[in-house]
Design a protein that fits this description.
It comes from Mycobacterium kansasii. InterPro entries: AMP-binding_CS, AMP-dep_synth/lig_dom, ANL_N_sf. With 180 residues, the chain is α/β, with parallel strands linked by helices. It has one domain (39-174): Rossmann fold. The protein has helices at residues 28-35, 53-65, 75-80, 83-92, 101-108, 138-148; strands at 10-13, 23-26, 43-46, 69-72, 96-99, 128-131, 158-164, 169-174. The protein has a 4-stranded mixed sheet with strand order 5-6-7-8. A two-stranded antiparallel ribbon has the order 1-2. Helix 1 packs across helix 2 (53-65). It is globular and about 50 Å long. The model has no long low-confidence stretch (mean pLDDT 88).
């Protein structure tokens, strides 16, 4: 971030879910204002692509702004072995990780994430597993909590979030212990 921020940090395109995609100016001030609502010193893990706002903003810009650290992995690595995501969270004692609802569903599939791949994983450090970027499914949250409770995942770590590009990512978040 520049010492004297200008009016434009980057141009982001909307998803086009309600109309044609359009460019939205995201300013330094937008990112700073939104990021200031979060705790400092986060340790994040993300496999989300940096061209997607949930990945770019919540896993990199907010974390950098607040003096935290992000550990990245590729989306392909997550899709090939979702246990790698959970293992990295465990290894670095991550406090934050963003993911869309489908990632939780993917981790619930025993053909993609067999139980034997979870040995030694501890998710107890996670303060916020922010789930957004697509429709949220209460049933998915319940099943994910149930499957991963034995690996230290606290029920309140799952944080459902809604947002839009025009608002620099998060509009509403529910369930995070520290982030609101």
């Amino acid at each position: 971030m520049a010492d004297t921020p200008g009016p434009v940090l980057f141009l982001q395109y909307t998803s086009g879910s309600t109309s044609d995609p359009k460019g939205v100016i995201v300013s330094h001030a937008n990112v700073i204002a939104n990021g200031s609502a979060f705790a400092g010193g986060e340790v994040a893990v993300s496999w989300l692509p940096q061209h997607h706002d949930m990945g770019l903003i919540s896993a990199y810009l907010f974390i950098m702004l607040l003096g935290g650290t992000t550990h990245a992995m590729s989306p392909a690595d997550f899709l090939q072995r979702p246990s790698a995501w959970l293992r990295l969270i465990s290894q670095v004692r991550a406090t934050h990780s963003p993911a869309p609802n489908f990632a939780l569903e993917y981790c619930l599939r025993t053909d993609k994430l067999p139980t034997d791949e979870l040995t030694g994983i501890d998710l107890g450090s996670l303060d916020s597993l922010v789930v957004g970027a697509e429709p949220l499914r209460a049933n998915t949250f319940a099943r994910f909590r149930q499957r991963f409770a034995g690996y230290g995942l606290r029920p309140d770590a799952l944080a459902g979030a809604y947002g839009l590009a025009e608002n620099t990512l998060i509009v509403s978040i529910r369930g995070a212990r520290r982030w609101l």
